[in-house]
Amino acid sequence: MSEQLVFNILVILSFILAGGIFVSLFFISAPYGRHTRGGWGLSVPNWLGWLVMESPSPLLMLALFLIGGAPKTTTTLVFLLMWWAHYTHRAFIYPFETRSKNKRMPVVVMLMGMIFNLGNAYLNGRWLFHFSAGMYTNAWLADARFIAGAALFVGGYIINRWADRKLRSLRQPGETGYQIPQGGIYRWISCPNYFGEVLEWCGWALATWSLPGLSFAVWTFANLAPRARSHHAWYHRNFPEYPRERKAFIPGIW
To answer: Is 31 helix (H, G, I), strand (E, B) or coil?
Structure first.
């Protein structure tokens, strides 16, 4: 069985599994962060869980760039840098910025996240740097799909980082409690950090114009939309004064 065939099968499976994850997460909230609870076995410090879970993605993407058989162009380098802009922060900066270092993450959650990140980086990286077979010439940077997708990616990245900083600013060093975030996009939705991340990877899918990119966007929505709903419900349960007009995930809609 050729690698190309295995690759194609994995892309198809990724869409199928995303559908299953989307449905299941409406019934089971992943047990980390504010939804941490017992019964999930061994756990590790939150910062270590994020580091182990996220770091394989930028490292594998770099390796695939270096060994890929497709021509290395300015375009493929830009895609690598876009990926690294998100994942080097998520893997090597975010775990040490968080004010919840005393919280813990179940090992099973950490391992599932690591497996997903390895598979996702393989699908996207192997497509971009090998199976695309010269699709991404430097002329691609002037293509409307890349321009629109890159703009969406940057916009989502800015929203995601702003929202994370806003949440972090609600706690003083050593504090672990939760407060109601206010201002900016928080006026309209409970989880602009998740909204921004979905925008990022929808932009990625458009900029790369690829099935692996689309698969990642679908996975991101399937994972974060139900979690945003859980966060929204949690706010309403714990803060009677929580703004009733605020939506969970999409301004004015849901």
So the answer is: coil
Q: In the chain, which ranges are continuous DSSP H helix? A: 3-24, 46-54, 56-67, 74-92, 94-97, 107-126, 144-169, 192-208, 211-238
Asked, for residue 137, whether it belongs to a domain, the answer is: yes
Q: How do residues 121-150 score in pLDDT, each as one tens digit? A: 999 999 999 999 889 999 999 999 999 999
Whether 200 is in a domain gets the answer yes
Residue 95 is which amino acid? P
- In degrees and rounded to multiples of 5, residue 44 shows phi and psi of -130, 165
Say which residue the tokens 């994995």 belong to: 10
Q: Residue 50 to residues 14, 44, 54, 114, 173: CA-CA distances in angstroms?
A: 22, 10, 6, 9, 19
Mean pLDDT over each residue of the chain, to the nearest integer? 94
pLDDT tens, residue by residue, 64-118: 999 999 999 999 999 999 999 999 999 999 998 876 667 889 999 999 999 999 9
205: burial class by Cβ within 10 Å (0-12, 13-18, 19+)? buried
Distance, CA of 94 to CA of 117 (rounded, Å): 16
Looking at the DSSP assignment, which residues form a beta bridge with residue 247? Answer: 189
Rounded to 5 degrees, what angle do the CA atoms 95, 98, 99 make? 145
Flag whether 53 is in a domain.
Answer: yes
**Domain containing residue 74:** 3-238
Tell me the pTM.
0.94
Q: Is residue 250 part of a domain?
A: no
Helix (H, G, I), strand (E, B) or coil at 77: helix
Number of domains in the chain: 1
